[in-house]
Amino acid sequence: MTETESTTDAFDRDSVRSASRIAIAAFALVGVLYLFTLLPGVDRLVPLTPVTFAAIASAVVTAAVVSLLVYAAPKVASLTRTALHRTDAADHVERIAENGGAMAYWIVVLAAVLVAHRGFAGAVVPLLDGLAWTYDAAFLVASFVPLVFFVARLTVTVDPLSELVADRVSGSGPTGDEGTDANEGEPSAGRGASDEPADESTGIDTADAHGHSIAGRWGVDGEFGGSEDAGADEQTGS
């Protein structure tokens, strides 16, 4: 394993461990809050205030959870970017990875705003009396910020994502070895069906598929062969 690969693996492991630790801590706080609400008397009002003890505890836990979410947002973005990143990927794939990390960041921030709106309501709304609508209005404006950034990133991701889908669909067919020799398995032009060498001077095969010579097929072999044998006999007899 190279140094770059080991560094990347360590970075990924540290990021995953940190993000999982934050998620586990958030769930643990929510569980502790639920157990706290089961205690007797927590639904009583705090003296001289219209707020209950449960609402205060909920606000404290909400503040901790929101802090954890805001702290975890960059780590979630980094993990998302790493998961989508490919070292040999095309430019549009890199843009998808970058925009995906940004969208993960802003969706976590939006979740933090929504959790804060729900968790602080019990402790803040009773103090506003007739101005309770301002509480919702403030969080509505606050939630628009991450939502707008999320939609902006999503909009610029449509085009590279469509290019990626087009690449996957167009490249889904079988890709055989198109560069192989098209004439592989065919007999070479310089050889006959019987794999006997052709005449080098004329390039004509002197044997047919059954191994008979051209002279033998046309009877020339016997004719000239008989004449030559007769001439040889006459010379021997003379």
TrEMBL record:
Q: Which organism is it from?
A: Halorubrum persicum
Keywords in UniProt for this one? Membrane, Transmembrane, Transmembrane helix
What name is this protein filed under? Uncharacterized protein
- Please give the residue ranges the record annotates as the region Disordered: 167-238
**What are the transmembrane regions?**
22-39, 51-72, 104-125, 137-156
